[in-house]
Design a protein that fits this description.
The chain has eight helices and 13 strands. The chain is an alpha/beta fold. The strands form two sheets. Strands 1, 4, 5, 6, 7, 8, 9, 10, 11, 12 and 13 form an eleven-stranded mixed β-sheet that branches. The longest helix has 16 residues.
């Protein structure tokens, strides 16, 4: 997949491809606590994107998706890998979704709730990462339960345990891991939404956004996404359907 001069200029106006990685989404990215090195599915995709665009890669880690959107809007980043959120489409340009993950709840030992549909009731307090895709969705759809925000996914788990809240919002694979740290807790059956993962870029960079759309569709069709998931041992997610045939952009 070749890249035009216009797309390359849009994606790397400084001569480097500055990519934001949400290491708070530990299913798809992480940060080594000792070295600070970023790794995971999103990092591997960023490296492949830089290879194809022919420019040096600069990875920048962020603890939450909201900070990446702010950095894209300020010009500090050129690309961000994060959850697709319709409410943000006025702020950034999204590629098609390349991964889909169920979002549901973790409940503490002794909870009588069994399914995701049981959570929206009076008196239920839910720990959630602020400005996450789930927060945008649940603020619109919850009628009775109350959200209690924390600055990141990890902080939301700490809030959930320390404050003895009734539920924790998250992606199913992450909640399964969290449940192992809280004996007796359970991940509820069902889901309240499917969270898609996409690549975002600043609005107004049309050629770059078009290239990212083609890159993602090619990555799905060629099996690249599936290979990266396997390499990183990620389970419980699915490759999103192809939206349109990959475009082969020419110079």
């Amino acid at each position: 997949m070749r890249i035009s001069a216009a797309a390359q200029a849009d994606l790397a106006p400084s001569g480097r491809l500055r990519v934001g990685i949400n290491y708070g989404n530990v299913i798809l990215a992480g940060r080594d606590p000792a070295s600070g090195e970023l790794r995971g599915v999103h990092v591997d995709l960023a490296r492949e994107l830089a290879r194809r665009t022919g420019v040096p890669l600069e990875l920048v880690g962020y603890p939450a998706a909201g900070a990446i959107v702010e950095a894209l809007n300020s010009g500090a980043l050129d690309v961000g890998l994060l959850s697709y959120e319709p409410a943000r489409t006025g702020e950034v340009a999204f590629s098609p979704v390349y991964l889909e993950v169920d979002a549901t709840y973790l409940v503490p030992p002794g909870s009588l709730m069994r399914a995701a549909a049981d959570v929206d009731r009076d008196g239920v307090r839910i720990a959630i990462a602020a400005r996450s895709a789930y927060e945008f969705y649940l603020l619109k759809h919850l009628k009775r339960a109350k959200l209690v925000s924390a600055p990141s996914t990890h902080a939301a788990f700490e809030l959930f345990t320390a404050s003895r809240l009734d539920a924790l919002v998250g992606l199913r694979p992450r909640l399964v891991e969290d449940a192992e740290m809280m004996p007796g807790s359970r991940v509820l059956d069902g889901r309240f939404m499917v969270v898609g993962q996409a690549i975002a870029s600043p609005r107004g960079r049309g050629a770059g956004a078009q290239y990212l759309r083609g890159f993602i569709e090619d990555a799905k069709a060629s099996g690249l996404i599936a290979k990266v998931l396997e390499k990183n041992g990620v389970r419980g997610v699915s490759v999103a359907p192809i939206v349109f045939p990959p475009a082969r952009e020419r110079e």
